[in-house]
Amino acid sequence: MNKNIIICGVGGQGTVLAAKVLSQAAISNGERVLSAETIGMAQRGGSVVSHVRIGQAFSPLVPKGQADVLIAFEAAEAVRNIDFLKPDGTVIVNKKIVQPVTASLSGKAFDENEMIDYLNKRAGNVIAVDTDQACRDLGSPRVVNMVLLGAASKSGLISKDELKAAIKLLVKPDFYELNVRAVDYCFSEA
Q: What is the Cα–Cα distance from 100 to 118, expressed in whole angstroms?
C-alpha cells in the first residue's frame, strides 16, 4: 500500500530523526521507501520538511495534494505545508507554536487556535497533540518527535511495534527506553 507522508517543523525539533525512524520502520517491514529532506536554514530555526514515500513512487518528493499524512512539529509549519495534504488526509500537529523572529519583532504573535481551526477546515482529520504536556509527563523536552510518531501510529499510519524496532536500530541505547515511552504516551491518553 502506498503512503505519502510530509513531516515538517523547525530546525532542532527532531524532524529528520522522525523521518528516518518512519522510513526504517517501513523498510524493516519489507516496504520500498524513498525520502528526502529540505532543510535550508534549519540550524537557525528555519523550516524543515521531510518527504517519506512508502510503496511505489518514482520521486522522493511528495507532490502537492498527495500526502496522506502531514506530521507537523509546529502549528505554523502545518499551515505552511497544508497544500501537500490530500483533501481527506490526516494532520497530526503539535499544538505548540514556535514564534518566528518576524512575529516577535512585529508584535503580532501567531495564534495556535486560529491555526488549528484553519487546519480543521482544510484536512479530513486533525489530531492536535499537546507535546508540552507530554514532555513534562515524560520528564524530557527532547521527545516531541517520538510523541508525534506515537500519535501517527495510534492513527493507523504504522504499527507501534515497527516504530519501536526502528527506534532500537537508530537511537542510542541510553535513549531507547525514553523514546519508546514517548511513542507509547499517546496510546495511554484518553
A: 19
